[in-house]
């Protein structure tokens, strides 16, 4: 598969953004989004006057009104009113960001020429999709690695994603990638005994874990004829200590059956997310106690160095030299 990373970051589900301004942050930059005449807008969440968060204001006559002195800014960020001022309007401006909607999500651009927004590898009309939002005390690299790490499932998700036995199977893992993405392909893993597999997967043949810039972690579970289940997490660093994510559960629609399966799967999906959230935040707190201590990169940590490289804007080494190894999963 060839992946084209984009510069769009998914920040909200479409239905949650209306006339009430919604505040969020990307890498610590506060932004506010709102909908005016069916059009979405994104502005820096800071009034140029006294730095008040504009997200605390309201929409009035086609502009967002600052809650402090009532200055107003339109969707492009131009000042449209300075209440009480007599004479021509001074030219003030709040920086605006490109914003778009795609597949039920709202995306904000983090750079020029943002490309095409990415939803999930299973996008298309024959896909059943469910969304879940979550937040965790951690960093983006840790969360992305956790989602793509197969080795923790024996401990954190016993009985849910894994069976109750300690049985392991020998699998072959191939790690490859390109500019802005990396993936690990697991082959030789038989169907697992966890609840999720029992309910939803046929004979599992292949699973793929993938990271795509700027913050997408995705796992595909393949049946005989192609992906039978895909979980895609759109992650962003909300603050130095918090990652927020929108998770997508996607599967073949199967004439409505896929959606029904999804409704059964959804609580398990949420349970797995809660299990990861607990262990990730415990680890984050401990990391902060030992800021000088480096973490060990173990022999099975096949993704981390590549995720780190991509987040640093570098091409992952496996893009030019794919690696294959054997492990017991
Ligand atoms: S701080 Fe926004 S109008 Fe004064
Ligand atoms: Fe997990």
Q: What is this structure, in a nutshell?
A:
The protein is 18% helix and 36% strand. It is built from 5 helices and 18 strands.
- Rg, rounded, reads 22 Å
Q: Give the fraction of residues assigned to helices.
A: 10-25%
**Spatial ordering of strands, largest sheet:** 11-17-16-15-14-13-12-18
Portion of residues in beta strands equals 35-45%
Task: Give structural notes.
With 329 residues, the protein is of the alpha+beta class. It folds into 2 domains: 8-109, Rieske [2Fe-2S] iron-sulphur domain (Rieske Iron-sulfur Protein), CATH 2.102.10.10; 127-328, Naphthalene 1,2-dioxygenase Alpha Subunit, Chain A, domain 1 (Alpha-Beta Complex). The chain has 5 helices and 18 strands. The protein has helices spanning 140-148, 153-156, 195-200, 257-289, 304-311; strands at residues 8-13, 22-26, 29-36, 39-44, 58-60, 63-65, 72-73, 79-81, 99-102, 105-109, 127-136, 170-178, 181-187, 206-212, 216-223, 226-239, 242-252, 323-328. Strands 11-17-16-15-14-13-12-18 form an 8-stranded antiparallel β-sheet, covered by helices on one side. Strands 5-6-7-8 form a 4-stranded antiparallel β-sheet, with no helix packed on it. The protein is elongated and about 75 Å long. 36% of the residues are buried. FE2/S2 (inorganic) cluster (FES) binds at residues 47, 49-50, 52, 66, 68-69, 71.
């Amino acid at each position: 598969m060839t992946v084209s990373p984009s510069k769009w970051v998914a920040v909200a589900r479409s239905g949650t953004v209306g006339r009430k301004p919604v505040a969020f942050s990307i890498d610590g930059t506060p932004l506010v989004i709102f909908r005016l005449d069916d059009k979405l807008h994104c502005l820096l969440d800071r009034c140029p006057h006294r730095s008040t968060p504009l997200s605390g204001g309201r929409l009035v006559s086609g502009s967002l009104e600052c809650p402090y002195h009532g200055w107003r800014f339109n969707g492009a960020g131009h000042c449209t009113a300075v209440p009480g001022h007599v004479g021509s309007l001074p030219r003030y401006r709040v920086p605006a960001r490109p914003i778009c909607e795609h597949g039920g999500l709202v995306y904000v651009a983090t750079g020029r020429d943002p490309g095409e927004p990415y939803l999930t590898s299973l996008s298309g009309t024959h896909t059943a999709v469910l969304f879940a939002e979550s937040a965790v005390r951690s960093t983006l690299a840790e969360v992305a690695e956790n989602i793509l790490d197969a080795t923790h499932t024996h401990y954190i998700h016993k009985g849910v994603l894994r069976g109750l036995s300690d049985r392991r199977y020998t699998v072959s893992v191939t790690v490859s990638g390109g500019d802005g993405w990396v993936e690990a392909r697991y082959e030789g893993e038989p169907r697992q005994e966890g609840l999720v597999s029992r309910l939803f997967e046929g004979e599992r043949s292949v699973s793929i874990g993938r990271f795509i810039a700027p913050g997408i972690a995705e796992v595909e579970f393949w049946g005989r004829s192609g992906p039978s289940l895909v979980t895609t997490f759109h992650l962003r660093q909300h603050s130095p200590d918090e990652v927020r994510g929108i998770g997508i559960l996607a599967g073949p629609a199967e004439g409505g059956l896929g959606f029904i399966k999804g409704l059964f799967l959804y609580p398990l999906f949420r349970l797995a997310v809660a299990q990861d959230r607990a262990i990730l935040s415990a680890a984050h707190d401990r990391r902060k106690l030992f800021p000088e201590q480096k973490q060990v990169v173990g022999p099975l940590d096949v993704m981390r160095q590549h995720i780190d490289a991509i987040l640093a804007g570098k091409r992952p080494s496996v893009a030019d030299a794919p690696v294959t190894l054997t492990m017991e999963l």
